[in-house]
Amino acid sequence: MIRIAQHGVNIRTILQRRHRPLQLQGSHLHQCTSLYKYIDPRERPPCPPPPVPPPPAPRDYKLFWGAMTALVLAGGFAAYAKTSPEVRDWLTINAPWFDDVIAVAYQENMTYKEFILQCTEDAKKYLNSYVRDDKPKQCSFEEGSALSNVELPDQPADQALREKENESPCNTLPPPVVTKDVCEIEKCLTDLADTALNNYGTARDACAYYNKLVEETMLDFSMSSLGELRHAMLERQDLVKTSVDNANYAVSRLDELTRYFECGVQAPKESLDNTKALLKDYRDKIQTTSANYQWENDRSLAMDKQWQMVGEVVEKYSAETQQMFPASRRAQTDTDLLLIHATRYMQQLEGEVREARAAMSARVARGLLTLPQDEQQRSGREVLVQAAVRRRRTEMDREYRKRSEELRAANEHMISECLKRQRAEHEETLRQRVLQKEIEAKARLNKLIAEKVATEKLVLAAQLAEMRSKLNVVEEKLNGEDDEFVRTVLKSIPDYVRDEGIELESVLRKKYYEMEKVALKVALVEEDGAPLFVYFLSWLQYMLLFVKISGIPQAEYESSTDVLPEDLDTFDLLQRARLDALV
């Protein structure tokens, strides 16, 4: 079946032929209503207008203002650091590049013109080192190119220098026959330069190590350290002499190579330029290393004079002290003598320092007069001198503070150790004194006790003798049974006294007070007993001290009879018993 669009046909019936013998089939088409509204393409609405483009983003000035802020802060900090030596010291150690910027900005070390010239020279050196090819080159020259042969003489350095001074700077004679190429010459040049650098570096390091050893030894000086310093000085001198001789010989050989190049060696221009640049670089390095060695060697020589002077003074002082006091030793010298000798030598050294200072001032003045007297150059020199003085003063202040802190720490440690030893000695002395006092006190106490015991023994012996005499008398009386007086006395003694004995007055008083306390507690209780409430009232009366104070009639007091009235209560009885106890 064929499907036809609604707006494409207007018929209702269509015939279709199949692949069968003459078979027709009719199909009835119906027009269905469209479910959607048809829109003519020409009548559809136009596209909406494009949105308005966003406004351009505002220009970001954060980087600019950040850079300006950093620049202003750096300038302010540089101005503050210019007036603060402590900040400059910190910058010199932790940020030397910023310290150099401050020095250039305030023209401390050089003027702006000199700084620009130095920057230009540094840029040229950098470009030359960057452009120059230090890699080994393959030497393949044609047979027709004649290369100059360099025969290195084996003569000593001094003889070579004398010959160099005597001969003319550049002879017009043709160069010798070539048997070596430029590569071998460069290798020889490199070996000689490395030898000179290594030997100068060895001499410099030996001097620096010796200077450090002298400084550390002088901080903790002792007589035994003089021998160590003398041995170290001899080793340094031998090592420096050997290293400097080797370096001078290598430098003289290097000068001969330079002379051969200056007299015109036949070689390619590029190879000659590279070799000359390499030679110039090595010469700069050798000059710098040699200057460093000279500086350290000058310091070593100055330190040699200083510690040798100290050693001579100490030896002289020790010799004089031993002459005056033969029994004295270095470790047991008198402090007063040391102060006297130290004061005398200090005055002598102060005089020498004043003379040396005056001579040095005159020498510096003469040196300044020989320099150009231009105002600009003079101001530049003053700036350089002030910068050097400030830098040296800063170093000396730092060294002084460091040594002060170390000395303070050492003194505090020494004081603490001395205090500990003094405390231990004090405690030991105190313990011995206390032990001695204790022994003395025990001796005195034993003596007093012995005397007291002896006295008491004498008293007791006298009492025993008296008692023995009395007992003898009693025994004699007891033995006299026929005596009427004895029988009368024995009859008067009660039976309980015979059985229990007689109690002391103190015991009787104690028992009386106990009885009185119990009687007061039960004062309200009758003889035949009472309720618990009466016991409580009686105890409460005793606790509150409600005591009945009653008098004794005069007649009863004066009567000699022991018969008491029958109507007496507990308080009356206690009153009469107390009276009898007092009587």
What's the rounded overall pLDDT mean?
76
Helix content: 55-70%
Q: Characterize the largest beta sheet: strand count, sense, and whether it forms a barrel.
A: 2 strands, antiparallel
Separate helix tally: 16
* Widest sheet: strand ordering: 1-2
Summing up helix and strand content along with how strands pair, one would put the structural category as: mainly alpha
Low-confidence stretches: 1-36, 136-158, 168-179, 330-334
Per DSSP, what share of the residues sits in E-state strands of 2 or more residues?
under 5%
Instruction: Return Rg in Å.
Output: 64 Å
Shape: elongated
Distance between the termini: 165 Å
Query: What's the count of strands?
Result: 2
Secondary-structure element pattern, one letter each: EEHHHHHHHHHHHHHHHH
Description:
Component of the mitochondrial contact site and cristae organizing system (MICOS) complex. The protein has 16 helices and two strands. The protein has helices spanning 62-83, 85-94, 96-105, 112-131, 157-166, 182-219, 224-262, 269-324, 335-370, 375-479, 484-492, 495-500, 505-521, 532-543, 554-558, 570-582, and strands at 13-17, 24-28. A two-stranded antiparallel ribbon has the order 1-2. The longest helix is centred in the last third of the chain and has 105 residues, at 375-479. The protein is elongated. The termini are far apart.
Compact description:
By secondary structure, this protein is mostly helical. 70% of the residues lie in helices and 2% in strands. Among the domains are: 144-300, no CATH class; 340-370; 428-488; 504-582, no CATH class.
